[in-house]
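Standup notes
- DV: blocked on the single-chain target, sequence here:
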Amino acid sequence: MGWEIVNVRVTQGRRDLVGPLRVEIRREARPAVAAVRAAWMSIDVQSSRGGTARPQRSTHLRARVAAATTSDATPTGVRISVRPSEVDPRYGGSLPLYLNATSAWPWRHPVFGGRARWQVQSGRPVFFGTISAREPRFRAGAERGMEQVAREF
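- DV (later): unblocked, structure below
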């Protein structure tokens, strides 16, 4: 429709026209972050013994990763990420990667109550799949923003 006009005006220095586009994309980020947080909470972490039983004492890893999932505004839209320092600063970015099965290896940790026995666990990929499933909504938001700018001409 009028998208060609918008593109020409933006390339000619009318950066203010990008505003409605950013607003619509950011609007779509809120439910996307909520969906990723829900996906973190629903993940089953497999143990090396094959079970998914709850431990006697939980570290609330899923809840910590879900709470650390945020969206930040960027010049071109949004960035959805997990802030590793909010999960556990001792491990850097490794815990969210292991939980999301992004790493090629599972992670090991001592069994609660001692260091004599160690447990091997692996996560499940949820982060990228959840965001990718929302791609049509991000695209629709971008189109709404472009339509809004095109109507101004």
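- Follow-up: The chain has a mean pLDDT of 79.
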